[in-house]
Amino acid sequence: MRHCATTVCDPDAVRGVSRLVAGLAAGVLLTSCTGGTDTPDDRVLDLVVSPHPDDELEAWSLIDEDQNALTVFLTMTHGEATVNCDPAEVARNTQVDWGEIAPTPDPQGPGTASCAQARIASWNAFLDSASQVEGELDDAIPTLAELDETDVELAGHPAQVWSSDAGVRIAVDGGDGELTAEQVRDTVEQALELEQVPDLPLRRVIGAAYTNDPPTRGDDAYALYRHPDHWAVREALLDLDLETTDGICVATWPSDPEVDLRAEVDDGTYEAFMGLGDEVAPGDPESVRREGSFQRVYGWLAFPRSFWTPTELPVPDADGQPLVMSRSQAFTCS
Question: Which class for 22: exposed (0-12), middle (13-18), buried (19 or more C-beta within 10 A)?
Fold first, then answer.
C-alpha cells in the first residue's frame, strides 16, 4: 500500500483475502495507488520492525506499495505476555457478533504457546488483508499462501520466516517484555543476511514502535506508551550503522524535539483498517460494527475500549487512556 504523505493516492476498492481467517473475505476495503516502474533492476528493500504483532499500524504511513519495493515485516516477539490471552479476557473482548474474528487457536493464558500462536495468526491475517488489490496479488505485500515457511535462529532466538521473491515476514520469539536494544540490533542485522531475504539495496528501515514517556522522554499531551520493548526497538534502530538511501525512522510522539518526518496514512486506507459502522445493539456504543480489517483481526486485543478507537493523532482519551493507532504519524530518523 502506498501511504506516504508526499504522495497523493487515488482511492480504489480493494478486498482483503485472508488464508487464515475466511471471514475477512467479506468486505475489507483497502486503498490502492500507482507505483513505480516494473523494472527488476530498480527493486529496493524496505524493512519494517515492530516489537509485537499489531504494532505495524503505528508506522503504516511509511509503508509503500511501489511494486519495486520488497517489504520485509519483522516482529521481534510473539506478543505472548498480553493479558488479553487470559481465557476470561478472550471471552469478554472478542465480539464476534459485532464483526470481530475470534483468535485461533483459543488462547489459554499469557505466556502460553497458544497465546503466541494466536497472536502470530492474527498478524499474518492482518497482513493478508493488506495484500489484495482488485482481487489480484499486490506484489508489495504477498499473502501467506504465496510464501514458503522456514524455521531459523536470529540472535539466539527461534524465528519463523515466510518468504518469496515478492515479500518476507519474520516472526521472532524474542521474549515479550524482555527485549534489549542489543538483541534488536543483532536480530535486524542477522535478518538482513538471511538467504530468504533478497539481496537488494536497502532503501529504509521503519520502526513501528511508538514511544512516549514523560516527563523526560515524552509529552503528557500525547498518548503515553512506556513499554520497554518499544524503547528497545527505538534505541536499537537509531543506533544501527546500516547503509540506506532513505534512512532509518522510528515512530514517536508528535512533539518529540527529534522529529524529522511526519506522514499520514491516507484516509481510504485508514478507514479500511480502522473503520467502524453503526451500532449493532442500538443504544450500546460498544456494539459498533467492526468493519476495518485491523478492527476485525485485532479486535480481541483492543484497548482501552472493546474496539480500537480511530484517532487523527496519538492522544489520551477522555479517561487518559492511550490511543496509539493514529492516522497522522511522526518519526525520528537517523
Answer: exposed
Task: Write the DSSP string, 36-55.
Answer: ----GGG-EEEEEEESSTTG
pLDDT band with cut points at 50, 70 and 90 for residue 65: low
pLDDT in tens, 100-138: 999 999 999 999 999 999 999 999 999 999 876 333 334
Cell 507505483 -> residue = 35
Q: Which of the four pLDDT bands, split at 50, 70 and 90, describes residue 166? A: confident
CB neighbourhood size of 267 (10 A): 12
118: left (phi over 0), alpha (psi -120 to 50) or beta: alpha
Amino acid letter for position 52: H
Average pLDDT of the chain, as a whole number:
87
What are the structural domains of the chain?
22-333 (3.40.50)
Whether the bond into 304 is cis, omega within 30 of 0: yes
Categorize the per-residue pLDDT at 41 as very low, low, confident or very high, splitting at 50, 70 and 90: low
Q: Which residues contact 232 (CB under 8 A, 6 or more apart)?
A: 51, 76, 179, 180, 181, 183, 184
Local structure of residue 172 (DSSP, 8 states): E
Contact 174, 183 (CB under 8 A): yes
